[in-house]
Amino acid sequence: MAFATLRPPSPAALRLLCLVTLTALGLPAAACSYSWEIGSGGAAPTTSSAGGGGAGGASGTTTTAPDCASLKAALGTARVAAQACSYAGAQAQGECAQKITDECGCRAFVKAGASPEAKAFSDAVQAFASAGCAPTCAACSALQTGACLQAGAVIHCVP
Questions:
Q1: DSSP readout, 76-133?
Q2: The pTM is what?
Q3: Residue 150: exposed, middle, or buried by beta-carbon count in 10 A (0-12, 13-18, 19+)?
Q4: For residues 114 and 131, what is the distance between their CA atoms, to the nearest angstrom?
Q5: What is the CB neighbour count within 10 angstroms for residue 99?
Q6: CA 38/CA 35 separation, integer angstroms
Q7: Which of 3, 33, 130, 159 has a CA 20 to 30 Å removed from the CA of 143?
Q8: pLDDT digits (tens, 9 = 90+) for 89-132
């Protein structure tokens, strides 16, 4: 039986996941200031040097690819938190009226544009794009306004 080798998530992905999780729980994001670098024996280093005092050594820099799977997961979690709405009060409270441009360049309506959840979603979109990750996109919705709808057990802003 063959086993796949799993790489630990990148420090940027861990920090983003921390921000999204704490924001969703209403906790201060300052707790995410921890250094997410993994020490020896952990993930591949982002920089390395070899040599120095012996034959054949040379200094160099290597970079690791961004952990797009972790960034995509964090982006999805942030989207769910930002788009969660209260079906009964959506019309009266103006929920789902503000939008954020998502990773595909589409309008994603959120419960409240100034909420910590919306900020975390916007930050997750930026981190995903900055890492050079390729989004999986369908056509953007032509709808110009958002609405709070229930799909199964989930109540969220659409589109």
A1: HHHHHHHHB--GGGHHHHTTT-EEEE-TTS-EEEES-TTSHHHHHHHHHHHHHHHTTP
A2: 0.59
A3: exposed
A4: 25
A5: 18
A6: 9
A7: 130
A8: 555 577 888 999 999 999 999 999 889 999 999 999 999 999 99
